[in-house]
Amino acid sequence: MKRTGHRYIDVATNTTLDTWFPRDNQRIVRSCLAQQTGLIKSDFIEIEIVDLSIAATTTEEAYLRLHLLSECAVLPNELNLDGIFALLPNIAWTSAGPVLPKDVDQLRGLIAEHAHHLRVTSIDKFPRMTDYVIPEGVRIGDADRVRLGAHLAPGTTVMHEGFVNFNAGTMGDCMVEGRVTPGVIVGKNSDVGAGSSIMGTLSGGGKQVNSIGQRSLLGANAGIGISLGDECIVEAGLYLTAGTKVKTPDGEIVAARALSGRSGLLFRRNSISGTVEVLPTDSSVWGGLNNALHNND
Prior knowledge:
The structure is a single chain. This protein has helices at 33-36, 59-70, 84-87, 104-110, 291-294; strands spanning 2-10, 16-20, 40-48, 91-94, 97-99, 120-124, 139-140, 150-151, 156-158, 163-164, 168-170, 174-176, 179-180, 185-186, 190-192, 197-198, 211-212, 217-218, 223-224, 233-234, 239-240, 245-247, 253-255, 265-269, 276-280. By secondary structure, it is mainly beta.
């Protein structure tokens, strides 16, 4: 695949700051105050990726891969993102354009005559997704909490406290009020409850890829270090790591990893004994997504 991107470059160091690849592959020029002052410059560049299984070697190619994820052209974990942190420089994302962090004070002085109140929204390797890709049929309460490289399928709602990282996302109608971390995929008609968290590929050894199936609920302030199959529930406040000891209906005690990916399970903590238990269930127990609140039209 070959795409044309508009690139911002730091003038002093010739460092690529970012590259925007319009979805329709048109040569569209961007402009910002940082460029007008001469701190950064811009040009067009063509990038071709022959094989997504081979790691990127340039900042520009890394940006194209993140765009493909956010355009839902590829699924999380379907392309090689090895070494991406080394390819992306740390950037001060400002209201006057992207600059290297050391140049923020200089930029503030250079734009004083423009009566522009400079805002620095973040200092990070990854920008906001919505500054580069606008997904279709999606609601996002706080754009700062969705990184470029997030995969948000139509029907997704990310509430204000929800967070979706790069190489992670949803497969359809979903409510995200918790953290969806790298490598994690959330199935259609599932709910990631407020304050909840899913261990991703950047946690621990970075080898385990966790996911949530369809019609499942991860309760408020809950967490998982295993995968959930379809029609599963983790009760509010329960953090289920791979090593958590779980009591089955027949009284057997197993590590939660032995149940990873299985469908139709309810995980709860017995309020009397404190034991973590697993029981059979189905998604009708929690009622599914609220259609009125979830309408993205």
